[in-house]
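Same chain as my last thread, 233 residues:
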Amino acid sequence: MFPCLRPVTSLLGMLVLAAWGARGQGAPLAPRPDWRERWVPTVPVSGGVRVGLMESLPAASAAGASFSVLLPQSVPPALCVQITAQDGRYTATLEYDLASAAPGTVHLQFPTRYRAELAGHYRSGQLAVLARGTTSCVVPGGPFLVASWRERPVFDSLFVLVNSHWLTDLQIPDTSRAVSVVGCPEIEGTPAVAFNRACAVPMARVRHNPTVNIRRRRVGAVLDPVPLPLGVR
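reply #2:
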């Protein structure tokens, strides 16, 4: 997918979320040995529309050795992860086996060779994680899962990180078959190549109907929606 990749061998609700998340505590899972990453000294051109699905956008230095993903009640066999810096200079693709994982928070190793460069250039909120549960990373498919760089994530909200120079929003169907709209404002103050917008959504709005579409439009024109199936049940 990437050129020049280097192979490398309510209170009740809060209580329920806390109990669910606590199931996944333990040593971080290591990725499969064929994970890949890339660091380039210059800013490249932008890529796809869906770039990240995060629990928060923390301001801490981007030097963590692990991250977390919220697994649904039906745990997929594998997890495909793409990590992308906001300016596009760093990318990584990793795959994790989830055979021993339980629903809730799973901690995953982030074994980068570029930890010093990432810590020197980015905050954690500038490193997007796009995680997708699937049967095999060779065949794309399956829902997107919420990730976090925080040591103790809460998973009561999510941020969809999008690459779009059009007016952009999320379309979220509700149980009455109506569609609610969530805006995706531009992220200010930082160079943006890989992603330039963040759509903030309370988890409660998508937990019971996780069918979301990304809509991009200009005056007189609307692009085809980009589906974002979510695994948050």
